[in-house]
User: Which sequence fits this backbone?
């Protein structure tokens, strides 16, 4: 045996286990533009996962919901549950705005994932929660993203107001019972329904209560706007106060103290203004509450059961 012989210990090479990766994508609606964005998100993140050594794509989570609707993000919740069950070790997402709807939600989710040892990577911002400085940067960038989202919402509202002011809003031609949209999308009278609208106004001015009108409509087998046999008092009451029947449309009218827009002669009228005003006066007369000569308000017995 040679005196120069040497024996070297070679430790076993550790088996490199693949990291289990999940992709999370979210879009704000199911519009064609948003669905294209969704396809691009999934495609880009899938390619990135595929070319990264020792990464294994386990699942893809997709939510389609409004960012401000408050709706439950079922796929996001499923992703969190999979992370908690140790099925996912790395979460890939396009950017912070896709991950959460506000700063609090993003940071709370990140804390939960960190507790389970899950790493989150935001591809667009180049942020990785494995880095110690990332959480501060995430907080700053998410604040900016939230401000941009609010600005976008304000721009949408501004667009609504601008179209309302110019008379170009499609909401001016939103149909109701008695109307239909013509080939150009404008409101046109639907004759069979308009006849029933006129009947309701006539019956009210003859002295019938809303309950009485309901019974008369059902007796004549006239169907409701939704095609049902039974009319609701609420439907009839709303119809009797609907200015659309005199060719008037109000937009953005949530309060008398806020600016709103009125389009007069917007479309053909079913009811004359005189008859409409007569109904409004009659409705006030039939109100349950009246003011007495002494100035005190009390229940009125007249029309109290008929309105």
Assistant:
């Amino acid at each position: 045996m040679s005196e120069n012989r040497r024996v070297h210990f070679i430790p076993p090479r550790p088996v490199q286990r693949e990291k289990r990766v999940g992709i999370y994508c979210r879009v704000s609606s199911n519009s064609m533009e948003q669905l294209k964005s969704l396809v691009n998100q999934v495609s880009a993140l899938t390619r990135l996962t595929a070319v990264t050594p020792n990464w294994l794509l386990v699942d893809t989570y997709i939510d389609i919901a409004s960012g401000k609707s408050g709706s439950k993000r079922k796929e996001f919740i499923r992703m969190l549950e999979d992370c908690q069950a140790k099925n996912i070790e790395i979460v890939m997402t396009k950017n912070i705005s896709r991950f959460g709807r506000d700063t609090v939600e993003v940071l709370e989710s990140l804390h939960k994932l960190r507790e389970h040892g899950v790493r989150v990577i935001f591809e667009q911002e180049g942020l990785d929660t494995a880095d110690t400085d990332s959480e501060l940067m995430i907080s700053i960038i998410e604040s900016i993203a939230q401000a941009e989202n609010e600005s976008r919402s304000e721009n949408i509202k501004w667009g609504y107001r601008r179209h309302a002011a110019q008379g170009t809003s499609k909401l001016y031609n939103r149909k109701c019972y008695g109307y239909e949209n013509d080939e150009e999308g404008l409101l046109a009278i639907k004759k069979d329904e308009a006849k029933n609208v006129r009947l309701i106004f006539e019956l009210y001015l003859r002295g019938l209560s809303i309950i009485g009108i309901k019974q008369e409509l059902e007796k004549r087998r006239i169907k409701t706007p939704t095609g049902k046999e039974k009319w609701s008092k609420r439907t009839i009451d709303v119809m009797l106060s609907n200015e659309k029947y005199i060719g008037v449309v109000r937009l953005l009218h949530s309060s008398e103290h806020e600016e709103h827009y009125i389009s007069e002669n917007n479309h053909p009228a079913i009811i004359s203004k005189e008859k409409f005003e007569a109904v409004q006066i009659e409705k006030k007369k039939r109100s349950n509450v009246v003011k007495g000569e002494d100035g005190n308000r009390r229940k009125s017995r007249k029309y109290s059961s008929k309105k």
